[in-house]
Amino acid sequence: MTKLQSFFGPYLILIKLLLTGLIILSLSRLGLVVWQWDRVTAASSLSTVFWQGLRADLIMMGMLLAPLALALPLVANRLGWKVWQNLLLVWGVMIIVIISFMEASTPAFISQYDLRPNRLFVEYLRYPKEVFATLWQGFRWPLLIGLTLTIISGSVAVKLLQRWLNDHQQPWPVWKIWLSWPLLIILLVLMIRSSIGHRPANPASFALTSDAMVNSLILNSAWSVYFAIYNMQHESNAAEVYGTMTNEAIMAELHKNYPWIGIDPQSKFPTLNTRPATVHRDKPLNLVIILQESMGATFVESLGGEHAVTPELERLKQKGWWFEQLYATGTRSVRGIEAVISGYLPTPARSVVKLSLSQQNFFTIADLLKQQGYFTEFIYGGESHFDNMASFFIGNGFESVIDQHDYEDPVFTGSWGVSDEDLLNKTHQQLQQKHAEGEPYFSLVFTSSNHSPYEFPEGRIELDNPVKQSNTNAVKYADYALGQFFDKAMQSDYWENTLFLVIADHDLNVYGDALVPIERFQIPGLILGADITPRSIATVASQIDMAPTLLSLMGISAATPMIGRDLSQESEQQSKGRALMQFADYYALMQGEKVTVLRPQNTALEGHYSPVSRHLNIIGPAAADDEHEALAHVLLPSWLYREQRYDMPLGRADLLP
Predict the structure, then answer these.
(1) Is residue 404 domain-shared with residue 347, that is, in the same domain?
(2) How far is CA 532 from CA 314, 482, 528, in A?
(3) Residue 287: pLDDT over 60
(4) Are 534 and 320 in contact (CB under 8 A)?
C-alpha cells in the first residue's frame, strides 16, 4: 500500500474521480475557448473564464460525488467492501460518461443556439423521432464524433477504475471512517454551495460578461442542463427568478402603459378589457395566420438582414401593412404561438402550449372566434403532437387539426413532414371549401420546411447556397411557396373577405455578443387581404400586438384578457412602442430604443438599442422605475397562469360581464 493510499484510505478514489472530472471539464472549456477565441477575449479575461469555470466544475463534481460520499461510512468497511467497490465502479463510470457526453454534445448545441446545452436539450428528448432525423441529416458528423468520444471515455473510465480498485484492497477501520466522514461532508457542501452567503451559487453567479454565450462557457454543460431541469420544476413563478411585487403593484404598474386594463387584482379575469374595433363592418372578415418557421429579419433585405433570400415577401409587402420593427417574444415556435394566438406575454417558464394548467380554459383568439360562429382550424405539415400543439389547440378553441397524416400524395415529405408547398396547397383548398359553404373561418397555418435539416423539393428555386440543404436555401424555398400561395389567393373568391397575417415565430439561430441579441429577435410581419391598403408601421411592436390589431381590422369588438396594443389606431402607430423578449435566463423590455434587462437574482441593467447599427449597448444599472415596469411585465403572465385567470367569460366574447 502506498503512502497516499494509507493516508487517504477509501477517500483516495473519490479524489481521483474529482481530479479526472476536473481535467475533462477544463480541457473541454479550453477547446471551446480556443474555438470562440475572439468573442471570449473581447468579453472577458481568460483568467476569469478558467478560474470561475473551475469553481463551476467543482459544484458539478461535488453534486455527482455526493451519493458516494453519503454511502461511504455504511459500506466502505470490511463487511461491505465488495459492495463499495462495485458501487464505485458503476457510479464512477457513470460520472465520467455523463460529463464526457455533455461536453461532447456542446459544440453542436452552441452552433445551433449559441449557448451551452440548456432546457431545450431536455425538452427535445421528448421527440426522439424528429430530433434523431434532424441530427442525422444536419449534424451527422458531430453526432458520430460525440458518440465515439463518449464510448471511448466510458471504456477508459472502466479500465481506470478497475486499476484503482485493484490497487486498493484494504479498508480503513470503521471508527476512522466515521471520524473523518463529517469533514468530507463539510467539504462537499462548500464545493456545491460555492458560497458562504445566504444563497448558494447558481448559473446567474457566473454571468460576468455582456455576452451570454461567453457566460455559458464559464459553466459546464452537465450543470447547465441540471439547473435547467431544476428550474423546470419551479417555473410557474417568475418571482423566483427576477424578484417580487404584489398583485396590486403589478396591475397599477401595467395600467400606466395599458390604460384599457383595470387595476383590480381581485377580479376573476384581472386583465379582461373591451376595445372597440377601429374598422366597422357589416360582416367581420375571416382570418388566416401563416406562422413562418424561423423566417427572421436575418433573411429579409428591407429589415437589414444579411441574407436577402425572400423576394416574394418583398413583393407582397407592397400590398399590405408591413411592420418595420416587429420583435418575437422568444426563441421557440411555441413561444411565438402563445404570443400570436393568445397575446400572452413571455415568461422564463416553458410556453403555455406545453404547461398543464393551460390545456383548457386558456384564452386564444380561436376560442373567441368559435364563440362568434367561426370554424377554427390548425393546419400543419408535420406531426401535430410535436411540442404538445394539438392538445393545446383542441383544448382551447380549435375545432379541427390537420397534420401530416391528412395529405394525399404530397409533393415532398421530409423529416419534419410535408413541404410548405403541400401545406399551402391544402390551406388554399380548405379556404375555398369554407368560402363555398359560407361559413366564417379562422385558420392557423404553421410552416416547417425552414427547419433543420432543411429539406425541400428539387427544381423550385435557384439555390442561394451550393449546399442544397442549407438554411438560406430553405428560407428561399419557404418564401417561394408563400408567393405561390398568395398568387392563387389573390385570384380567389375568398380574398375579398379574408384577412391574412404572415409572421415568423422567431429568427433562426438566435445568438449574438449581447446579453439579449435583440437584432436576432426582429422578425417580418405583414397584414394583407380584403381591403387592406399598403402602409409601413414604424413603431416598435411585439408579437403580442398582432391579435388585438387583427381583431380590430376584422371588425370585431370583443372582451379579451390581452393587453397588447391595437396598432390599427393611429396614436399607437405614432408611439415609440415596446417589445418584450425572453432569452435564456434574461428578460428584456424595449421601449423605443431604451432597453431594460432583467437578470436572475441580480440587478437589472439599462441599455440602448440602435435599430440602425442593430446593436445593444449596456449603459449600467437600470433605474428603479424601469426595473419595476419590466418586472411587472414578467410577473403578470406567471401570476395569471398559476391562478388560471387568463381567459374570458364563457359565452360573452363580445361584452364584459
Answers:
(1) yes
(2) 17, 19, 6
(3) yes
(4) yes
List all residues 6 or more positions away from 134 whose beta carbon is below 8 Å from its beta carbon. Answer: 415, 416, 451, 452, 453
| Separation CA 121–CA 113 (nearest Å) | 10
- C-alpha cell at position 456: 425541400
Cα gap 39→45, rounded to integer Å? 11
Write the DSSP string, 379-423: EESS-TTGGGHHHHHHHTT--EEE-GGG-SS-S-EETTEE-HHHH
**Over residues 498-525, mean pLDDT:** 91
The percent of residues in the chain predicted with pLDDT above 70, rounded, is: 93
Same domain, 574 and 457: yes
**What value does the CA radius of gyration of the chain take, rounded to a whole number of Å?**
27
The answer to whether residue 153 scores a pLDDT higher than 60 is yes
Q: What is the mean pLDDT of residues 19-38?
A: 95
Structure letter (DSSP) for residue 347: -
pLDDT of residue 630: 97
CA distance 434 to 365: 19
Share of the chain above pLDDT 90, in %: 64
CA 128 to chain CA mean position, Å = 18
Q: Which of 296, 278, 229 is nearest to 503 (CA)?
A: 296
Quick check: 652 pLDDT over 50? no
287 within 8 A of 443, measured Cβ to Cβ: yes
Euclidean distance between CA atoms 627 and 598, whole angstroms: 7
Residues 141 and 261 placed together within one structural domain of the fold: no
> Taking a C-beta distance cutoff of 8 angstroms, is the pair 188, 60 a contact?
no
Average pLDDT over residues 59-87: 86
pLDDT greater than 70 at residue 98? yes
The most confident of the ranges 39-53, 214-228, 543-557 is 543-557
* Domain ranges, residue 396: 247-281+300-642
Question: Does residue 590 sit within a domain?
Answer: yes
In terms of pLDDT, which residue wins out, 165 or 323? 323
Q: Which has the minimum average pLDDT: 142-156, 180-194, 410-424? A: 142-156
Residue 264 grid coordinates: 383590480
For 253-317, the DSSP string reads HHHHH-TTS-S-TTSSSTT-EEE--SS--SSPPEEEEEEETT--GGG-GGGT-SS---HHHHHHG
| Same domain as 548, residue 431 | yes
Last residue of a domain, one of 201, 232, 263: 232
Q: How far apart are CA 184 and CA 134, in angstroms?
A: 45
Which residues on adjacent β-strands are paired with residue 291?
Answer: 446, 503
The pLDDT value given to residue 234: 56
In single-letter form, the type of residue at position 432 comes to: Q
Q: Are residues 180 and 255 in the same domain?
A: no
Whether 38 is covered by a domain: the verdict is yes
What CATH code is carried by the domain that includes residue 532?
Answer: 3.40.720.10
For 574, other C-beta atoms within 10 Å of its C-beta total 10
Residue 5: the pLDDT is 67
Average pLDDT over the chain, rounded to an integer: 89
The verdict on 128 and 97 lying in the same domain is yes
Counting every residue, how long is the chain?
657
Q: What is the pLDDT of residue 653?
A: 47
Q: Do 189 and 114 belong to one domain? A: yes
Strand partners, 594: 591, 608
DSSP-based three-state secondary structure for 631: helix
> What would the grid cell of residue 18 be?
474529482
pLDDT of amino acid 4? 67
User: What's the CA gap between 205 and 207, in Å, rounded?
Assistant: 6
Number of structural domains (the chain) is: 2
199 and 251 in a single domain? The answer is: no
Q: Does some domain include residue 650?
A: no
